[in-house]
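Good morning N.,

You mentioned wanting to compare the apo and holo forms, so I went ahead and generated the holo version with adenosine-5'-monophosphate-propyl ester. This is what I fed in:
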Amino acid sequence: MATIESVLTETRVFQPSEAFVKQANVSGMEAYQALCREAEQDYQEFWARRAREYVSWHKPFTRVLDESNAPFFRWFDDGELNVSYNCLDRHLASRGEKTAIIFETDDGQVSRLTYRELYVEVCRFANGLKSLGVAKGDRVVIYMPMGPQAVIAMQACARIGAIHSVVFGGFSAKSLHERVIDAGAKVIVTADEGLRGGKAVRLKDAVDEALGLGGCDTVEKVVVLRRTGNAIAWNGARDVWWHALIEGQPESCEPVWVNAEDPLFILYTSGSTGKPKGVQHAAGGYLLGAILSMLWVFDYKDSDIYWCTADVGWITGHTYVAYGPLALGATILVFEGVPTHPHPGRFWELIQKHKVTTFYTAPTAIRSLIKLGADLPKQYDLSSLRLLGTVGEPINPEAWMWYHEVVGQSRCPIVDTWWQTETGSNMIAPLPGAIPTKPGSCTLPLPGIAADIVDEHGHAVPQGQGGFLVIKRPFPSQLRTLWGDPARFKKAYFPEDIAGGKYYLAGDSAHRDQDGYFWIMGRIDDVLNVSGHRLGTMEIESALVAHPLVAEAAVVGKPHEIKGEAIVAFVVLRGARPAGEEAKQIVAELREWVGKEIGPIAKPDEIRFGDNLPKTRSGKIMRRLLRAIAKGEEITQDVSTLENPAILDQLREVV
Ligand code: PRX
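and this is what came out, ligand included:
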């Protein structure tokens, strides 16, 4: 990949400015190293001390880490707390009138909620959910547009101990259906429509369609937020308006105290099989990870206006919109729309208008904004910014430099944060007042995070050599299991052949440079990263073969200038290999089909047809070969085991 090649030659180092270091929560390299040493000296006490300091416990814990049933680790497991209490109630006395959420809609309307107002909204909605029979441990699927109500719905679930499972509004009815069934949801919370870039997204229709597919017998009610007011179908026995549900509900709702290990949420993500994984997080450890990373990596201060651009449908939107900042009493900006609507300067305009201090976005957004107007940020006053962040995929040094110079005006440190749905919060990232940065590197692990790079047996690799990224010790914010599938959890994340199943295997490859800095190289499994969205090749393949015309399909990624990776599908039809106009038509049809099966983000960028796929004599699809073909590379690998070498020429042909 171009990214990897360019980062390998990257030698620039950026020291944090003296002014930044002076005011930083972790100030100077020595302070960082002292934290790391503290964690090494007494690992459990390191986390326990911070859990006591930053989390409000209803019943304090006496046990820190229970490893007796590894890898099903338990943290703080005799403690009781409520995450919503930590995000709302505990701020009321000191900052009840502080703005919690600044919300800007797609069409530019701005509204605000103070902590007290947010508290009231969460309580009313929590009471509403209770009136529908939702109780502790019940699952609630949230399929909503980005907005304060999505956060309110999440917080309301947390308040009553219900487990939410947010499904990104860009996923199709089919994807929603699969997740609703897997989670056994009792209630779905949605909206009539979402609004993005001036276009309506028919969310309620998708819910109706999902439920119409059958098998969702656990679902009793669908709560519908009126967002656009356009007409929708209505099932009087099942559907309830959000506004009707909260009408007359009391403005307070006693938090349900849960065990630290009780699940806070499930979030589905892609793995190497066709079935998404329900990543399950625990209330106590997750909250601690969110809080500490806000303080350490985002150098959070009470005066910040914090803007993480992620949708709450992704882990980034969970940890750095819905939970982390609120747990610290931050003012956050929530934006409904897209970076480019109604003009390509929208993000910069938002930063200027709301005096954003901390801006956290994905490399794919940065690259597309460069393309739309590399000089555009200069037309806006971005002097409020003090810290920039990126997440979700490797950032190429060119994009990093632009972000640094043009957006951050060479003043703001950049935190390139490596982490995953499974890790719950940042794992490897610079503490901006301590760790010098290098464009393209996520730098060093957070204090207490035992990240390392190992070979296939779990032995550390020499510096500079690539290997598997692992985390060698349990940490509070890690996933606890996969919902309903503990065996898959164990196999996917703690495989026996690597150090006897003792290490958390992240699924990424990485190498380390002479300063110990981590450089992420990409996934080691069949997972693609398209515009920072994680997609399984198998999921896309299953969607394609579900089409009546398709006999077989193989999906690979290829480097893409803006998206990071593009999706290339190699397809064998049941009938003859199509050509010309017919091929074009089938491509369009299959792309639409995948959009309906999974969601528009999964539509292949390219589809190529062959009479067959390249396979070994034992029948395995030669994916490495397909990746080379997709990239247009010379084939240097041994194709002697290939049963049908002639099809390679067919697969080189772009429709
Ligand atoms: O491959 C890594 C990439 O995104 C994967 C995790 O995806 P997801 O669970 O959807 O979470 C994304 C947001 C946390 C990782 O396995 N990734 C994430 N952050 C980075 C990254 N790759 C390189 N650099 C990063 N900063």
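The chain has a mean pLDDT of 96.

Happy to go through it together on a call whenever suits you.

Best,
F.
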